[in-house]
Design a protein that fits this description.
Layout: E1 3-6, E2 11-14, E3 21-25, E4 30-34, E5 38-43, E6 47-52, E7 55-62, H1 65-72, E8 76-80, E9 95-103
Parallel strand pairs: 3-8
Antiparallel strand pairs: 1-2, 2-8, 3-4, 5-6, 6-7, 7-9
């Protein structure tokens, strides 16, 4: 399966086909979430919330409408939590500035 990846954005999308899971790379750990557990995603250009049966995540950044669309198609392969310094830098184009993943009770 080919993947479109732009490291400056912070996410990768499958170009052909639908991946079976989403890899979330946090600074301290990584979590694999099966797309079969995906419930919904909602958001704006600056904030996105995605909910799976077991976890919920909040993504902040710029140009996230593109990421929301990829969630709707379930083609996101990988999300990467940025370094802390990214919050203070100005990025041109779509990017993730913060990523929080929590377990559902």
């Amino acid at each position: 399966m080919a993947t479109a990846w732009a490291s400056e954005r912070g996410w990768g999308v499958a170009e052909n086909g639908r991946p079976l899971s989403l890899l979330v790379r946090l600074r301290q750990r990584s979590v694999v979430l099966p797309w079969a557990l995906f419930l919904f995603a909602e958001g704006t250009e600056t904030e996105l919330r995605a909910v799976f049966h077991t976890h919920a995540m909040t993504v902040q950044g710029a140009g996230l409408g593109e990421l929301l669309s990829a969630f709707g198609q379930q083609t996101v392969v990988e999300l990467v939590e940025p370094d802390r310094i990214v919050k203070f830098s100005v990025a041109a184009g779509p990017c993730i500035t913060a990523l929080v993943l929590t377990e559902n009770p």
